[in-house]
Design a protein that fits this description.
alpha/beta; six-stranded parallel β-sheet; elongated
């Protein structure tokens, strides 16, 4: 421990200054580039300076440690770690771990580390040039591999759903059942979730156009106080859908679960998937992989900052979908069959 602990005044001063900047950003900016992207860029430099200021850990090891920690925290947001640990009301916990995964956060973290390494390698002679170039090659190769892992799965999923996504009820072939993929009704700020609202709209439009006879709502009901399918059912009935035409799947924890259970539990080998286009594409890919003939009816899209034409996390979700097919991932629960008739 004595060999690891070592104080470096200049690094500690830098860390304290950056901490002050982060506090100002947190207090003055609630959203936007400065709060999110610049704040994440600076926070990895702050952590790096803190490690270097308190330990004798080398430049590259410190940088790698910070990058691993920041990436790990970001990816934990995909698992909804705040909700899993029941820390929704813990503001400090939510501040540290965050609540929403963003691809640009990973870019900001990586850019911050590259910046600090550039500064260190430029002004400190103890890092050998050959080691520096080797590390640059590793970083470059890693970045290229990351891009491939995002772009290739995106292409495969999109290609699998080609000519199977529809916007107009008149164009889509009729199926007995329309599968509505679940979403939370409200956002974290208490407003109506537009993904939810537009999926309800799409399901109603498709039913009233006589393109489906039944609606199967599949969503998350893992907690007593969280019931996606029942909320959908209430709103569908309010919009004129007969109650006996609505079936609920309470174990649709993931898109994979929803699609596979539609076949294994509800006996549907031909189905119309109802969600936003990017989501329908992934669901169609999973359906085809499990022997289901599926088409997608695209709900209205949400005009928010996107990476190209879909949410950033969708790129990772598509990579995960392909991995799930490769390893033959099963739904969390199956159970007794339910006949739709």
């Amino acid at each position: 421990m004595k060999n690891i602990l070592k104080f470096h005044k200049h690094y500690l001063i830098c860390a304290l200054m950056l901490f002050g900047v982060e506090v100002i950003i947190a207090l003055q900016f609630k959203t936007g580039f400065i709060r999110h992207t610049l704040g994440d860029f600076l926070v990895v430099i702050l952590l790096y300076c803190a490690i270097r200021g308190l330990t004798s850990i080398s430049v590259w090891r410190s940088a790698i440690i910070v990058l691993i920690i920041s990436f790990l925290i970001e990816f934990l947001q995909l698992l909804n770690i705040v909700e899993l640990l029941h820390q929704q009301n813990n503001h400090v916990f939510k501040l540290i771990f965050g609540t929403t995964f963003q691809f640009m956060d990973l870019v900001a973290y990586t850019t911050g580390i590259i910046t600090i390494l550039f500064i260190e390698t430029k002004y400190q002679k103890q890092i050998h040039l050959r080691r520096y170039l080797k590390s640059k090659f590793i970083l470059g190769f890693g970045f290229l591999l990351l891009v491939l892992c995002l772009i290739l799965p995106n292409y495969i999923v999109a290609k699998s759903a080609e000519q199977k996504n529809f916007y107009n009820p008149e164009d889509i072939p009729k199926n007995k059942v329309g599968l509505v993929l679940g979403a939370s009704k409200f956002t974290q700020n208490g407003r109506i979730n537009l993904y939810y609202r537009y999926r309800v709209d799409a399901a109603v439009k498709l039913y009233k156009a006589n393109k489906i006879d039944y609606i199967l709502v599949s969503g998350d009901n893992s907690r007593k106080d969280y019931d996606e399918p029942s909320l959908f059912k209430e709103d569908l009935i309010k919009r004129g859908i007969p109650e006996d035409k609505i079936y609920l799947d309470y174990a649709g924890f993931r898109t994979l679960d929803s699609v596979v259970r539609a076949k294994e539990i509800f006996g549907q080998y031909n189905i119309t998937i109802i969600s936003q286009r990017f989501h329908c594409q992934r669901a169609i890919f999973l359906a085809q992989a499990h022997g289901i003939n599926a088409v997608g009816f695209n709900a209205k899209h949400i005009k928010t900052p996107q990476f190209f034409n879909k949410p950033i996390r969708e790129y990772l979700a598509r990579s995960k979908a392909i991995l799930d097919v490769i390893i033959n991932k099963k739904p969390k629960y199956l159970g007794e069959k339910i006949a739709i008739r």
